[in-house]
Specification:
binds nicotinamide-adenine-dinucleotide; 19 helices; single chain
Length: 451
Amino acid sequence: MRISIFGSGYVGLVQAAVFADVGHRVICMDIDAHRVEQLKRGDVPFFEPGLSEIVIRGVQSGLLTFTTDTKTAVENSDFLFICVGTPPLGDDSPNLKHLMSVVDSIVEHINGRKVVINKSTVPVGTADAVTARITKGMLQDGRNHSFEVCSNPEFLKEGSAVADARNPDRIIVGTRSNDTVEEFRRIYAAFNRNRDKLMFMDPRSAEMTKYAANAMLATKISFINEIANIAETVGADIELVRQGIGADSRIGYQFIYPGAGYGGSCFPKDVRALKHLAHAAGCEASILTAVHDTNQRQKNKLAERVIARLGANLKGKTIAVWGLAFKPNTSDMREAPSRFLLENIWSCGGEVRVFDPEAMQVCKGIYGERDDMTYVSSKDEALEGADCLVICTEWKTFWSPDFEAIKKALSEPIIVDGRNLYDPSYLAKIGIEYYGIGRGLSVTGTAPALN
Ligand SMILES: NC(=O)c1ccc[n+]([C@@H]2O[C@H](COP(=O)([O-])OP(=O)(O)OC[C@H]3O[C@@H](n4cnc5c(N)ncnc54)[C@H](O)[C@@H]3O)[C@@H](O)[C@H]2O)c1
């Protein structure tokens, strides 16, 4: 099938490559000329496991091409997927300017029937707004091509985006046309073999499903973080509590890991956007407000731990930081907890030595070269001359380190662990001062006396 994808970021590039890999002819359009040139050479601009191989395969087969030209992308395809960013504006609503600019190019170059499919995460009602904009645009120029606007929200997870796109849990399609139902069945045939994953609904429900899914997942994270903070204060161990509640099949183990707060390009902005949408519609959103506020507080947790232990004046102190990406298997640092940590340490006068297996270049792009930050090329190097170690991302390489080497390298053997990777009693036994999240016994040593 002839598909164009607008936006070659995490969503657009993965979907384009996965579509081309099953035989669709895909044109990927982006306004970023540098990125397009890189991609034409098969050079993927960010880290995502398995993506490079299928991009290279697509480019070599000729099924996957890249362009900055909107005319080429609109005229030569029947299915136009919009996958551009929708970052938050100051009032928390998503900025739809990139999306509307794609819509305007579609209006400009439309040359026959088109199915416009929005994959970006957008407020409820956007498909209707896009329909109105295309209709109005064509009327102004006296043109009348048939078109459909559908919502096909994306649920892939960075770090396993290729696997998720190839094997989605469900494929949500918001459409009001029977013709497009059949077309979606053909577009997604290769990903719909094992059971029918396509779920058709009206566009507004599809748009709402995306926000509701992310809000639910963010709620689970903020919930467990709140419970972790209580557990810590009353002398309980959240890791035992987590397993205790996860065993309940109504709760389950997924998304109840305590940590340093959720980050990334989706949960923070989508929770805020849904809150904004609710308020604009005159609805209460007290749970969403609490989820967001809890997360913001949680992101300061690691710095608070460091300050509680080393003092608020960190001049002359160096903190080793393991992990910068907002989660493992990605180089993405958008709204990452590590950024809260770094910025808090700097504001207290401290210095950092940072290491991440994939996010070093991204970090340099954000913060550049600074006197109070040393970029190093291994986790061991990060420890040299540092006063304590803070873990922000649970990359596999951090799970089983040489603890004796850590003890030797740090001026004091202190680990602040934002991901609960280690066993507090073992670390206590080998003489490492260890602070996890919600591990009451490791913090207080004993449970508080009960009256
Ligand atoms: N990243 C994720 O894990 C994820 C998951 C599900 C949904 N989403 C949603 O998908 C959308 C895209 O997210 P992303 O992470 O891929 O964004 P991204 O920032 O990685 O990529 C967006 C791309 O769009 C390009 N672009 C901007 N304006 C354009 C235009 N007018 N024409 C063509 N290209 C244009 C940018 O240059 C960039 O390459 C967002 O709405 C996001 O919320 C993201």
